[in-house]
């Protein structure tokens, strides 16, 4: 069981059929069709090495089940994620409401998780402007308000997809140093007042 | 103020309320009359002392082990022909006692003995060893397999560390000391135990990181071995500990899964067609893997079972759909497998992995992904209701109570391919048999009722028959009453008209004697 070592967990969130799975598939197939790391049996989890400057950062990309019947379980999914790609469909305003919900959830529960707001199916709205239901600037304003990066992508044409994941990897790389110095242990979602148990540090 | 206390007859001197250390703050009975600050310091001091004692003990054991280690190493190279079975191996006379640390009772006893001996008779250095060996001889053969496994793991660990030379020795020492330290912490809650182990992993990983100058690959490799060694030793005392309600949850989950036996693959919208032999083969393997998880001791090995199970599920889906499975296919399929397998001690295993697995593996990697999905599956099953299966609450109730069993119905439209081939008879053959038997029984029942009716009418007939006969007789009797006519006497021969036609009477013949 020697799976690839992964540096950071990236979780895909968003309403059913906004295009989370397509985004991952597009990204992975684009680069890994012939590569050695392709996960040939399924696209639910993908370990993806990305070149960042001198280094190689391996992202573990977690796709989530879209069906609403599993929505209550999503919190288990994003636990410990270092980045979340919150997707909404540019042609569906209700999906943007849903994205707002995910953002709030993440802000409450995962303070170390960086948020990437991603409007999907860009090809549809560039073909027919009337289909667009979420204004670019509205989404941009929201992203700034929550301190998130904002992208509009198309899994069909591949537009902006690489850029999105590249940004995720770069941000992780530059934040990794700060994170490592400020926090010395991994918090498993429990309180961290280990005053009484500090004995284990003894050496 | 003072009046009131006097009235109640309680005399409280202001100085009694103050911290016994005289720092000027108020003390508290719960902190043995100290203020919180002084109590903390005091506690820390006692704690520190205990740690130092543990440490001294660990070092002593370490020295002993190192001696044995060296001799075993020598023995090994000297005679290859000798039996190398772990139990007879010379090195294991000293490794033996340590393997007992995982056994709660033995362990406590050992610890008590060694600590007491250490405090009161520092000259008898060999005493603890003797004690544990005594315990060992009396231990039942039942534990032999377990201790064999533990010994093997220790041996592997030592072999692995030998290649690392000097840092290997240091790592060994740290791990050994940690296990000794942990053996004195049986009373801690599960979360605290977890914290101790996680802290140990963390400090070990930090040190390795600086030793290997940031090569995470090498660090991870060593950490895997450390986890294996430590958790094999600690397993018995920290898996499903009594301080938690893990066991209760296990039973609840098991019962719940049994109650949900009626849930079909279609209700969960799983894209696995078990009619295809290759698919059902994978399903069986997945079930076996998830059940096997309980038999492993090392968190990473348990994770390995989950991962193997998941890969079989992915294969089953891919074969069914003829395309790679996505997260949307995977989770429902995993739920289905868990329902079918009803894995032993599911909650305990999930908790154990969460508490004691190396977090970098659990949180980010592929194993972590499958593990997270298993957690979701368990949560889903726990909360499962009518809505989660697209059923009406009434239907759900009837299935749950066993009043009805689901037949193939309209919800099957979700099943991919249902359009072309409506597999109406795809029900469980046992269910089909059951239904057939039920039909037979109900027809038997109706026939029996007919027989019963007939019998009853026969009975009624039989009862009324004598009466009818009696009545008839009565009627006849009434109709034809018995008439007694006056008696008419007449000469017998009066009416004999033909007398003269009679032949002459026979004359008797006389025989002379
Ligand atoms: N035109 C277009 N369609 C898309 C795009 N991304 C996804 N889709 C379609 O949207 C539907 C849902 O996509 P999927 O990835 O399964 O969504 P998920 O439920 O979020 O995983 C599918 O029919 C996709 O073909 C896109 O970028 N452009
Ligand atoms: Mg999807
Ligand atoms: Zn004080």
Content of β-strand of chain A: 15-25%
Low-confidence stretches of chain B: 1-10, 75-144, 409-425
> Total helix count of chain A?
6
The sequence of SSEs of chain B as H and E is HHHHHHHHHHHHHHHHHHH
Count of discrete domains of chain B: 3
Q: Please compute the radius of gyration of chain A using only Cα atoms.
A: 18 Å
Number of helices of chain B: 19
Strand count of chain B? 0
Biggest chain pair interface: A-B, 46 and 62 residues
CATH architecture of the largest domain in chain B: Orthogonal Bundle
Mean pLDDT of chain B: 76
Radius of gyration of chain B: 46 Å
Q: Major sheet of chain A, described briefly?
A: 6 strands, mixed
Quick one: how many beta strands of chain A? 6
What small molecules does this complex bind?
Answer: guanosine-5'-diphosphate, magnesium ion, zinc ion
What's the overall geometry of chain B? elongated
Biggest sheet of chain B: strands, sense, closure? none
Going across the biggest sheet of chain A, name each strand in turn: 2-3-1-4-5-6
How is this structure best summarized?
Chain A is an alpha/beta fold.
Description:
The complex is a heterodimer of chains A (203) and B (513). With 203 residues, chain A is an alpha/beta fold. Chain A has a 6-stranded mixed sheet, sandwiched between helices. In chain A, a hairpin with a 2-residue loop joins strand 2 and strand 3. Chain A is globular and about 45 Å long. The C terminus of chain A is likely disordered. Chain B has 3 domains: 167 residues, Serum Albumin, Chain A, Domain 1 (Orthogonal Bundle); 159 residues, Glutathione S-transferase Yfyf (Class Pi), Chain A, domain 2 (Up-down Bundle); 47 residues, no CATH class. Chain B starts with a helix and ends in a 34-residue tail after the last helix. At the A-B interface, loops of A face helix 3, helix 8, helix 9, helix 10 and helix 13 of B. Bound molecules: guanosine-5'-diphosphate (GDP), magnesium ion (MG) and zinc ion. Magnesium ion sits at the interface of chains A and B. Chain A: Its EC number is 3.6.5.2. Chain A: Pfam families: Ras.
């Amino acid at each position: 069981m020697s799976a690839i070592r992964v540096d950071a967990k990236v979780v895909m969130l968003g309403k059913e059929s906004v295009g989370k799975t397509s985004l991952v598939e597009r990204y992975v197939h684009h680069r890994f069709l012939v590569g050695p790391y392709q996960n040939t049996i399924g696209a639910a989890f993908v370990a993806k090495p990305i070149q960042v400057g001198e280094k190689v950062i391996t992202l573990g990309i977690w796709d989530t089940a879209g069906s609403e019947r599993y929505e209550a379980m999503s919190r288990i999914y994003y636990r410990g994620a270092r980045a979340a790609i919150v997707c909404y469909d540019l042609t569906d305003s209700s999906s943007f409401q849903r994205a707002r919900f995910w953002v709030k959830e993440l802000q409450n529960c995962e303070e170390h998780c960086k948020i990437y707001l991603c409007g999907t199916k860009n090809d549809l709205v560039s073909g027919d402007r009337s289909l667009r239901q979420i204004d670019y600037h509205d989404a941009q304003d929201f992203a700034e308000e929550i301190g998130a990066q904002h992208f509009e992508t198309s899994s069909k044409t591949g537009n902006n997809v690489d850029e999105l994941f590249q940004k995720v990897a770069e941000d992780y790389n530059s934040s990794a140093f700060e994170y490592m110095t400020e926090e010395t242990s991994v918090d498993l979602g429990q309180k961290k007042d280990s005053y009484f148990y500090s004995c284990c540090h003894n050496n | 103020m003072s009046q009131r206390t006097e009235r109640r007859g309680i005399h409280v001197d202001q100085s009694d309320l103050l911290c016994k250390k005289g720092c000027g703050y108020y003390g508290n009975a719960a902190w043995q009359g100290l203020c919180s600050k002084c109590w903390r310091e005091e506690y820390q001091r006692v704690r520190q002392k205990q740690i130092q004692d543990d440490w001294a003990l660990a070092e002593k054991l370490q020295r002993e082990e190192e001696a044995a280690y060296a001799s075993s190493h020598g023995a090994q190279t000297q005679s290859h022909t000798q039996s190398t079975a772990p139990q007879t191996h010379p090195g294991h006379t000293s490794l033996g006692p340590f393997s007992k640390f995982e056994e709660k009772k033995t362990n406590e006893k050992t610890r008590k003995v060694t600590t007491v001996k250490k405090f009161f008779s520092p000259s008898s250095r060999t005493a603890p060893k003797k004690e544990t060996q005594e315990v060992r001889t009396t231990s039942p053969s039942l534990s032999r397999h377990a201790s064999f496994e533990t010994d093997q793991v220790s041996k592997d660990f030592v072999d692995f560390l030998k290649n690392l030379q000097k840092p290997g020795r240091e790592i060994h020492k740290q791990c050994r000391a940690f296990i000794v330290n942990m053996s004195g912490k049986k009373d801690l809650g599960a979360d605290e135990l977890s914290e101790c182990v996680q802290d140990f992993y963390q400090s070990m990983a930090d040190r390795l990181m600086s030793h290997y100058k940031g090569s995470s690959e090498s660090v991870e490799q060593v950490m895997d071995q450390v986890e294996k060694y430590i958790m094999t030793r600690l397993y018995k005392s920290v898996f499903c500990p009594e301080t938690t309600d893990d066991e209760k949850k296990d039973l609840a989950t098991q019962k719940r899964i049994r109650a949900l036996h009626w849930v079909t693959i279609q209700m969960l919208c799983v894209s696995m067609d078990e009619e295809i032999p290759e698919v059902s083969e994978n399903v069986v393997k997945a079930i076996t893997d998830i059940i096997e998880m309980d038999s492993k001791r090392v968190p990473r090995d348990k994770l390995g079972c989950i991962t193997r199970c998941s890969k079989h599920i992915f294969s089953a889906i891919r074969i069914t759909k003829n395309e790679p499975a996505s997260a949307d296919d995977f989770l429902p399929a995993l739920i289905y497998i868990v329902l079918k397998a009803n894995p032993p001690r599911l909650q305990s295993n999930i908790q154990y992995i969460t508490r004691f697995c190396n977090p970098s593996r659990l949180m980010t990697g592929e194993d972590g992904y499958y593990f997270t999905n298993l957690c979701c599956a368990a949560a889903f099953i726990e909360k499962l209701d009518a809505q989660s299966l697209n059923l009406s609450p009434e239907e759900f109730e009837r299935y749950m109570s066993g009043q009805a069993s689901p037949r193939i119905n309209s919800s099957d439209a979700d099943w991919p391919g249902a359009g072309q081939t409506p597999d109406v008879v795809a029900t469980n053959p046992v269910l089909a048999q059951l239904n057939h038997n039920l039909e037979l029984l109900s027809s038997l029942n109706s026939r029996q009722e007919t027989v019963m009716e007939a019998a009853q009418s026969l009975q009624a007939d039989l009862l009324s028959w004598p009466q009818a006969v009696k009545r008839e007789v009565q009627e006849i009797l009434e109709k034809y009453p018995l008439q007694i006519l006056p008696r008419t006497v007449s000469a017998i021969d009066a009416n004999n008209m033909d007398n003269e036609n009679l032949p002459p009477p026979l004359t008797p013949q006389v025989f002379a004697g």
